[in-house]
Amino acid sequence: MEIQFEFYENGETKVAELLSRTLIHSAAEMLDIMMGAYYQGASSLIIHQGHLSGSFFDLKTGVAGDILQKFSTYRMRLAIIGKFDNFSSKSLADFIRESNKFGRINFCGNIEEARLALSK
What is the pLDDT confidence band of residue 1, given thresholds at 50, 70 and 90? Predict the structure, then answer.
């Protein structure tokens, strides 16, 4: 499947929004998407909650940590758009809050919030 993006200029940063209907199950799959965006000049990526498999939101699986480590390693920023207040896990809520605090990974409610978070 070909990975499709929409690109935005966000100040001096090029941002890629994932448009493809793909479900990301692993850090390796995310890395393929990251590299696709990177090779087209993007330093930030926007994805939607629906792009992530349920295992991402179950912190015990380690999928979220593995994926977010890739963004740290490759110095790329990520915004995930979705409704995150539906989850009952306190550890997930803490994880989201801490991620948003440091800014490399941002959990946002809409595209405007995502673009703003990635411009900081």
Answer: low
The CATH number of the domain holding residue 67 is 3.30.750
Domain count for the chain: 1
Section 57-75 average pLDDT:
95
- Residue 97 domain boundaries: 5-119
Nearest to 29 by CA among 53, 12, 5, 61: 53
The answer to whether the CB of 36 falls within 8 A of the CB of 70 is no
Tokens of 103: 């800014």
Written as one letter, the residue type at 22 is T
**Distance (Å) of CA 17 to CA 57, 60, 81, 95:** 20, 28, 10, 23
